[in-house]
Specification:
By secondary structure, this protein is of the alpha/beta class. The protein is built from eleven helices and 13 strands. The strands form three sheets. The chain has an eight-stranded parallel beta barrel, surrounded by four helices. α9 links the parallel β12 and β13.
């Protein structure tokens, strides 16, 4: 109800400004101990990747790139949070404007470009946070790191966040970092996964715990690419796959205001693509590892469709912009009751 009243004001502002104000409000509520009054979600624990999730609804990466708002976001009722994408070194991202609303279609286009304060800043923020729930940390490469050396950036981030993460997500699917999606090719992905798994084994021995690895993939993949990725995930023992990131397609929004902006499209227009990728992945994987479904979830029914297609957990982002915190409890209720 409160978000229904404030959304017109927020939508009158530049999207990044509205985001900053919203995060500041959540931070203020967390500081006063009132964050939990905003959102309450049903509890129905699920265990995947060796982790117990209080409920199957998570926050997708991108909303809190630096881990600065963990305690505020935790009060919305999520079963898990994912922060980032973080890179080894700070970088400003692409120049603004770089975030655009498509209200009629309940969509967003972003070309943020992994804007973040670097992994050292994120680590410091996580250490300060009071949150002790399930925390995923999403890692990427700096924009100016040559693609053939991308593995060095992912390994640096993995080492830096390992001790603090419940799981680590490897983001190779943003359309806003030049050539990043080339890492989804068979040879490049094989080399990257081999290096990450080998390093994770070293870190597991050092820290006395094995942190799960997840891979986040694009929706703009054909059946052959999905099959190849599924085979590599299984071969290297990756613990989960997140499907999907934003799309470069403009199907369903072509000709609408801002639709011609470059960047990744998310929200309701992504729903069909995300569902198709989850369905194809589930068929290829045959239950060998969990799928985290994300993309186009604007209601409990949308989340239920992803679970029915083969996802084990779901994540929200753009739906929060349009529906507010009520979406978290709605989705949690739908999925918890769906399991009886």
């Amino acid at each position: 109800m409160l978000y229904d009243l404030t959304r017109p004001l927020l939508f009158s502002l530049d999207p990044e400004r509205a985001h900053d104000l919203t995060m500041a409000g959540l931070d203020a509520l967390a500081a006063t101990g009132c964050a939990g009054l905003i959102g309450r979600a049903e509890r129905c624990p699920r265990t995947f990747m060796g982790i117990e999730f209080p409920n199957p609804v998570g926050l997708a990466a991108g909303l809190d790139k630096n881990g600065e708002h963990i305690d505020g976001l935790a009060g919305l009722g999520f079963g898990f949070l994912e922060i980032g994408t973080v890179t080894p070194r700070p970088q400003p991202g692409n120049p603004p404007p770089r975030l655009f609303r498509l209200p009629q279609q309940q969509g967003l286009i972003n070309r943020m470009g992994f804007n973040n304060g670097g992994v050292e800043r994120l680590v410091a923020n996580v250490r300060r946070a009071r949150f002790r729930g399930v925390l995923g940390i999403n890692i990427g490469k700096n924009f100016d790191t040559p693609i053939e050396r991308a593995g060095d950036d992912y390994l640096a981030c993995l080492r830096a966040v390992y001790a603090l993460a419940s799981y680590v997500t490897v983001n190779i699917s943003s359309p806003n970092t030049k050539n990043l999606r080339d890492l989804q090719g068979a040879d490049a992905l094989e080399r990257l996964l081999a290096a990450l798994v080998a390093e994770r084994d070293v870190l597991a021995r050092q820290h006395g715990r094995r942190v799960p690895l997840a891979l986040k993939i694009a929706p703009d993949l054909d059946a052959e690419q999905i099959g190849m990725i599924a085979a590599l995930l299984t071969r290297f023992g990756i613990d989960a796959v997140i499907a999907t990131n934003t799309t470069v397609s403009r199907e369903g929004v072509a000709g609408m205001p801002h639709a011609a902006e470059t960047g990744g499209l998310s929200g309701a227009p992504l729903r069909a693509q995300s569902l198709a990728v989850v369905t194809a992945l589930a068929r290829e994987l045959g239950g060998r590892l969990p799928i985290i479904g994300v993309g186009g979830i604007m209601s409990g029914a949308d989340a239920g469709a992803l679970i029915a297609a083969g996802a084990s957990l779901v994540q929200l982002y753009t739906g929060l912009i349009y529906r507010g915190p009520a979406l978290v409890s709605e989705v949690a209720a739908a999925l918890c009751r769906g399991r009886g």
